[in-house]
Write the structure tokens for this entry.
Amino acid sequence: MHDYAMLAEGDRVLVAVSGGIDSLVLTWLLAHWQRKAPIRYSLLAAHLDMGFDGDAAELVEEQLHRLRVPFLIERTDFGPRALTAENGRNGCFHCAKKRRNRLFDLAREKGCNKVALGHHQEDIIETFFLNMFYSGNLSTMVPRQELFDGRLALLRPMAYLEKDQIRALGADLDIRPVANPCPLSETSKRSTVRTLLGRLYAEDARLKGNIFAALGNIRPDYLLKQHHTSPTAHADHP
């Protein structure tokens, strides 16, 4: 909160709630912080029902009632439409893009200047490896990100927390996470990277902390410089 100056007097924060343990604990955390913080800010939890079969939206609504925060639930068809995009390829990308854009629109419609997301330390590390493995760049999610010329900020207040800490807190609070109804939830590239990193963490418990520290300890002079060549050079030297 303090390292990244996440909240300020008069903020209106849209909390993105998927129904998983991370987003529900985040909702509790921001409501708890609201009662003791030296500033005043308001919260609105938002759950986008992605359109899969089942009662996930109703279960999320029950949890939000228990957390006693203002909320809205919006039903969409983003999930089924994403599964059929590009003949079934890149479904996760299309779904995430639709969800993200709708959250931005909701923030604007409801007068919110900040959107809070439930990403944690492992998410940030996994995103770094996803971008490196599959996009060929060195980047990750950051705890605070300014968008639209500063009109909106993305916040990740749990960026320093590990998943196990969030699960333990959720258990103490009797928060009941809602299972992800997406049929691709366990077959994504992120799931593959998570499994790979899990094996490494099991072999050496120091790795997770070292990787996270490395993301803030960049040495640009020891990275490759990009040399841009002409189209002709590419043609001569494939």
Residues 12-217 form a domain with the Rossmann fold fold (CATH 3.40.50.620). The longest strand covers residues 42-49.
